[in-house]
Each structure stands twice: as structure tokens, then as C-alpha cells.
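S., here's the first fold you wanted:
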Amino acid sequence: MFKSFVKFALIVMVTMVVTYFIAGLVARFVLGGDEFYPPSPTAISYLRDPAGPGMALIIWPAQALRGLLFAIILFPLRKRFMELGVWSGGFVFAGIIFVVGFVAASGGMIEHFVWFTEYPSKFALITFIEILIQVAIMGPWAVKWMKQAALDKELSTLSMPHTVQAAHSSK
């Protein structure tokens, strides 16, 4: 089970980091999010400059940690994601991350509208689309990778009674 968790966690962490980077580039340079970050004169005051000193040392480990936390929570559901298939399972996976990790989270989108005195609607829309792009890529990619890593095979072996498992292993 530990080996299965490590595989799953690595899959979620890597897909989190890579899709975060891709969606961030799209948001900043295609959707116009760059105008809200320093050094732009229209930057939101509480945002750091992504190119600022030390940001690379903070951002990548932070995204890996987010991936690990999602992996801990989603690990019991991995079988269901794979049973649903790459697309359906991937979008369920993505939907959970989107809703729990962004929209409904304590520091998420709803809270921003309630508590922030400065939260431009355009920035909210760009961020919403950015996270949708991220999870739309991440979910199916993670489920496909889970299947390629044979996590579903590990699950079927783990769920067999010991006598059946021993017989199955000898084949």
C-alpha cells in the first residue's frame, strides 16, 4: 500500500507542478493576467512579482506540497477514477480539485469576493479560467498515468483474499 501511495503521490505532485506552470503561462500572457502582477502599474498590491528574487525557490515546492496534500485526500478514490476511465475519471478528479481546492476553499474564490476590498472581476475571471485549464489537463493526465503505472492492477491484488492472491501470484 505504501508503494502504491508513493506512486500515486508522485503522479499527482508532478501533474500539479507541470500543469500549474502551463496554466500560469496561459493566464499571464494569453488571458491578460500579467497586468495584475508587479511590476505592472496596475498590479494588485498584495501580489508578489513572479520574477522576483527567490520566487522560484518558493513556488515549485509550494505546488509540490499542494499536490501531496491533494494526493493524501484523493488516494482512497484512485480506484474509482481509474474505473471511470481517463476522461470521466479525469474530470471527476479535476472537479474535486477545482471545487475543493479553489472555489469552496477557505482562501478560495468565494472568500475572495466576501473579504477582499480589492478583487477585480477581470482578475477573478482570469484566475477561474486558469484553474479550469490546469485541472482540465491535470485530471485526465493523472488518471492516464495512474493506469500506465498499473495502480489499478495493484488495487485488484490488494483486494483479493490471501489464498486467491497467492494463487494469482503463482501464475
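And the second, which I think is the more interesting of the pair:
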Amino acid sequence: MSLTVDSVTSFSKWATEQLALGTMSVGYVQNRELNPEENQHLITDRDLNTQQPPRDKGGLAYIAFLIFGLAALLPWNMFITATAYFEKKFEGGKPFVHSKFENFFTVFSQITNVAFLFINVHLQSRFSAFSRIMTSLVMMLVMFMLTTIMVKVNTSSWPDEFFAMTLVTIVLFNACSGVFQGGIFGIAATFTPRHIGGFMSGQGMGGIFASMASIISLAVTQGKDPLGSGFYYFLSASIVILVSLVVYPMFLKLEISQFYLDRVTDDFSHSFIPSNVPAIETVKQIKWMLFSVWITFTITLSVFPSITANIRSFDGTTPLTGTYWTPVTCFLLFNFGDYIGRIAAGMVQCLSRKWLVILSISRVIFIPLFILCNYMPDERTVGVVFNNDCWPIAFMTVFSLTNGYFASLAMMYGPGLVPQGPQQTTAGAFMAFGLGFGLMCGAFLSFAVLAVV
């Protein structure tokens, strides 16, 4: 199935929502390589208030965060991967529905997700983390089970109504996803950087899994069974959400979870976070890390995938340079590089906050670099400068690595800049909002970039 400029914009939510990563060293931030005054609040396992934290036995807490990250992004990644499925289901409907449905998906999902990431910050003092996260997971599961069931329902006589139903599902799912992501980021902020990395790793794995599923489906079915592919996409996402629903209560009972969360409230699973946590003061303290994660994803989503997915090979005569060119060199390469970048962030923190902000801004250079590759050769008005297939692959490699590395560092540093306790949870929620807002801004900025080309 060919990818058009309009069709790939729907992947913007996915690309991001692509942080990801890794095997973070056990709560260790290399403060000796940073400015000590700049990072006086950065948290390690060694500077907790009164006692050494218990060991993460078997890495169970880390694995739990990994599963939560997977549940946060894999469902939506699978949803937007099923483009052929929705094209089939919307056949016979209004022309604008069949041709522009992905644009509607993008707008409805982005706005809803960012709105509820922000709302989640204010829900902390009104509803317990347990109720917010469990309710969100239950609603997410219901939405995806409904989506899975609808695969087997013949909607050929009411495609427009099915489109409206799908939009409602998207709004409800992304509202719950925003609350879930914000809540988990808030919890992760009270743990070590390693555990924050676990959540981000799960998100990155979701992108890789979705990319691999798309390639495998393309190889096996050659695009001839979109309904079958859609069914397995949605079913796998439902299973991941269900697993998270089971794991979360077990996660709260871990000794290490009780240790970290007791610093926020006496009973994190049932009590409220204090309403007097200074939100404005928190934003002031983390503002540059908030800006860093925002600008990183704004730049990334401005060209990925709206520009990068339409860069063509100069060859096009082999399966790799033809059918699999975009799935492999765009989506799979980005997700894999992003994942590696976030693993690296857990192993080496070699940038001060100042340099992190500067280098995050410098990624704007990728916008003209990708434009000057072989993007839409039959329609472009700007000349091609990089006339070899190696160039877009090289650019994508650095582009994805820096996205994962810079975003992960910002998400790790941010909560460490505020005092331990409830304020860290608020900082984590604001950082999640900054991430989502960057995705939304980048998605809309991509239309301006397309207009230039």
C-alpha cells in the first residue's frame, strides 16, 4: 500500500509517542560530569532522605514500568498501523471520509491526549493515583475490545456511522491514555532514573513491535487481507492492556514501590496527593527540561513521518528499495534508533542541562536535510541535493538516536530538579504534558513544512 502525505500524518501520534528506553543503570546520574550547582536536586539511590531504598528484586518494578510503557503506546501504534483495515471499512462512505480519515484521527487523538495530560496534573489532588490509573486502563481495554469486535461486524451499509463511532472511540481512548500516561510518569518520577527509563523503554518497544507487525503483515498477506490484519493488531493491543491491568495492583505491593511512594503519601494507592503542591513553582524549576523535551518532539514530528515516509529510493528495483523501503528505512529504523538512544541515556549522562537544551534546538537542521533528500520526486518544487540512498538512512540514524537520547535525558533530569515528595509527582506529570504537547505541535507544524516543499 502506498503512503501519501495525507496518510502518513496519522503516524505522528505513534512516532512519538515513541520515547523509549532501556537498561538504565541503577538510579545513577553522573553528577560528577555535570555542573554540581545545576543538578543539586538530581536524585540517585544514594541521596534519599533517611535510608537506603530496598533492592528491586528480580527487576520486577522495572519490568512493571516496561509493561506500562508498552500499554501506553502499543495500542495506538497498532491502531494507526491498521490503515488498510480502515480504508476497507470506510469504503462506500463520503469521499472526504475515505481520503482524509487519517487526518481526522490525528487531530482528534492529539488534541484529546494533550488536553488530558494537562487535566491529569489537576486531577492529582482530587482522585487517587490508583483510581485514575485503574479506571483509565479499564476504559482503554473496553475501547479496544469494542474495536476488535467491530472487525467482525459488517459495516458496509453504514460506513459513515462507523467512522463517527471510530472517532468517539479515539477520543475516549486518548483521554484515558493521557490520564494513564500522566499518572505513570508521575509515579516513575518518584523512583530512580532507571525506572523512568523502563517506562520509556516500553514505549519504544511499542513502536518497534508495531513496525515489525506492519512489515510481517505486508510480507505475508501482500495487503490482501486488511480485515484479518486489523483483527490481530487490535487483539494484541487488548492483551497488553489487560496484562497492565493485572500488573498494576501487584506493582503497588512491591517493597520498593511502597518505599518510594510512601514519600509522596502515606498510602499512594488510596490517598490523595496534597492539593497545595506548588504547580507554578514546579514548572519554573523544570522549565528548561520541559522546553527540551517539547522542542525535541516538535522538531521530530515536524518531519517524521510526513516528510521522511515520502522519501523515495533512487533505485526502486528491489523489494528493499521498493515495497519495503518506507517500512524499513523510515519506521523501523526510527523506532530502533530511538530505542538505542534511550538505552544510551541510561548508561551515559554526558550532557549538562545547558548543553542538552542547546543540542535539542540544534536538531532543527534535520528539517532542511530531509527536505533536500529524494522526497516526493514527482511533485516537489525544491531541488534534490542528497542524491544517494545512503543519505536519508544516515540522517534517520542520527535523527532517531538523538530523539531517544535527548528526550530520555530531559525526562530523567526534570523530576530530579524539585524536592523529593509530592512535587516530584507533579513534575513528572508536567514533563509528560510537555512530551505530548511537543508531539501535537510537531504534527501541526508538519503541515507548514509540507507547504514549503
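Why I say that: The radius of gyration is 21 Å. The chain is about 65% helix and 0% strand.

Talk tomorrow,
H.
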